[in-house]
Amino acid sequence: MPIPTPFFGECTDPTHPRKTSEIKPASLISTSDEALFKAWSKKIDLAIGLNLLEFKQEELQKHKYLLEPAHPSVNQVQNYFHLMPMFVNIEVEKKHQNRDPLIQLGAWVAAEFNKRQAEDWPIDIPVVVVAIEQDEWHLYIVHNVTKPDGKFDLRFVGPKSLGNTLDYEGIFRILYVLCTLAKWEEEGYRPWFYKVHVLLDAYID
User: Fold this and answer.
1) Model pTM score
2) Tell me, what's the pLDDT at 172?
3) What number of other Cβ atoms are within 10 A of residue 169's Cβ?
4) CA 26 to CA 189: how far, in whole Å?
């Protein structure tokens, strides 16, 4: 059975330079401001995704994609993990940076929902994001609200404190929540992903 596997946004492999980690295609970000696009299009720091078997990734590679068919992707990037479905998105802001992690997370999540809509996939399942500010971890659940014209707005529910890294109690709280999210992946996100991409458990595992 595929298991949740963490993988990093900031790849240190020289064969995968950071510039390939941007949100792509550019149409997934709704702005004509070049400077703003550059700031928004950087990939988040960390994500947790399904570690699909290699032959199953090959199967996804053959699927039909409406958005840029020449670059198959199940998410909002086109680099080395474009076939890895992500169910937790994490943005880290270090001390003394004085930046709001929700700015980048907002652009990243919006691109994911835009990708789903462009591919004519369901947008009913929420997106889970974690914002880490210094030692504090906060959870947000993002869901869509569809408008009469067919477009949608995003609603961020949170923040909910997950704990902190200042003491053992806070660290254990964070680990507990991450394990709970992994359980949600197994019971909620993975079945949804398999259904959308016509992947059966019996065939995939």
Assistant:
1) 0.80
2) 96
3) 9
4) 26
